[in-house]
Records
---
Amino acid sequence: LAVALRKFTGEPTVADSVVSSDSVELVLSDLGAKVSIMKQASTEPEKGGLKTPRFLRKYEPEVWASFPLRPPVVTVMGHVDHGKTTLLDSLRNTNVAASERGGITQNIGAFSVSLSNGAMVTFLDTPGHEAFAAMRACGTQVTDVVVLVVAADDGVMPQTLEAVNHARNAHVPIIVAINKVDISGCSPEKVMNDLFSYAGLQVEQIGGDIQCVLVSAIKRQGLENLIDAILLQTELSDLRANKDDPGEAICIESKVSKGLGSVANCIVRWGSFHVQDYVASGRTWGRIRRMLDDRGKSISLAGPSTPFTLVGMKELVEPGSFVFVMKDEEDAKLFSEKLDSDIYFKKLQQTALQVSLQRASEK
Ligand code: GDP
Ligand code: MG
């Protein structure tokens, strides 16, 4: 039937995909069969309950183009001791020095760097393949770009290859950052060749299309080139989100904080969050009492790709899960009550995978 449908309607279908009732009618009537389609009652509750995040929905190209561009969310990965933490620190400090004197960075699992041209880049602060894998396991893809750090003196190592696999499985584009180029006698060229031989990753310098920059995290060299590479990739990926929609975020960590109660550190994936919004996530809900940015400063609004701390949830939010802005208190409560989290996560996982496969195949 799938083949027939594709042939007759031109709609791409896969073995277990959902096809519109119009297509079924069209094909079957073309084959001379009489059909009457009975509408099946929606399995989704009217209010609250399961829903597909707007962030994962499919949009027509014209609609997609009407949404504003959003900053990228970047994860740094690579072998142990190749300089991930140092690189993140350098990127963060560059930013702090430039914008806010004496600003103390809060550890909320992510931070944003604002650039002189007004652009922003959000970095996940938790380098580590486990964090990445955990997010994926929950069906929530939190990152748009992977920066693969390879130390020029040590070269391609087991965790380098593991990181490449993680990024590939998640269909997230990779930018290679060859680090520690300040060490004399190191060989970035060898790293490039080895990446190609061992991982099939061909960087631009040797005729491929993977961006590769040389950096020294410790000496803060090449950071601008890295940022430029990230921004170029952002353009290629055409990252967009409608900031006017109700907010959808992914929780990256949560804890009980003295004086604030249960707090959830989140990254906005779609829409905006405002103080006083009703929110729901998994089996818990709440009303936003306060929002803090990555410097611990109170904010009243958080738009796409912004990392923020959400204060006001009744209970702890499960890391890796979506947090949704709901219409009102009733809706937020209903969402958390009706939710069967197993079904929910399976559904999200499927959707996330479908969307990333689809986006990958479109490129
Ligand atoms: P991680 O395990 O990937 O997070 O690596 P770290 O950031 O902890 O760095 C491991 C070691 O490499 C530390 O001793 C750093 O000081 C050193 N390191 C990091 N970046 C550079 C660099 O650009 N040049 C040199 N020479 N050493 C570096
Ligand atoms: Mg580290």
---
Amino acid sequence: MDFSMKRRTLLKVIVLGDGGVGKTSLMNQYVYNKFNPLYKATIGADFVTKELQIDDKLVTLQIWDTAGQERFQSLGSAFYRGADCCVLVFDVNIQRSFEMLSNWHEEFLKQADPSNPESFPFVVIGNKIDLDCRMVPEEKARDWCASRGNIPYFETSAKEGYNVDEAFLCVAKTAVASE
Ligand code: GDP
Ligand code: MG
């Protein structure tokens, strides 16, 4: 038996949020260190993977992308089931995308139906902080997260790669911790 073999954990991560907030860009920045300024609406659902080490655990993050405009139902609840973490993304420059967080949060819990909804790991990302037209104050977003069981909150720029690794590291850690 090879005792140097480490246990590898596969974690399913679902990324949700309105269309155009930067879900696909955040994933591309995190996994490929690339940013594509051209907007191409995501069709259906797809995933990318990233391997990382958390303490002595090898972790494979399987990050599922979705098209925000799509009806949740069309993805089917099988898509959500078995998720280990849900990332909710909004654009700090678009008020409406922030207001929609509650809907995405609720809809995820309804579809995924986790055994412990109160303690299910979410991470919230306020993206596009490189732009100069912020509409959602950081304080507002933090309050929203605090009122839902202290969800960790990150402000990022997928364009500049700012805080993206940190956000997904938190995703991995909270998912591992809740296993
Ligand atoms: P999705 O629909 O949520 O997957 O959003 P996309 O990742 O496709 O991004 C929508 C548009 O916003 C694209 O034109 C991206 O290039 C742009 N975008 C995404 N993230 C950022 C960011 O952090 N800063 C800026 N300035 N633009 C971004
Ligand atoms: Mg997309």
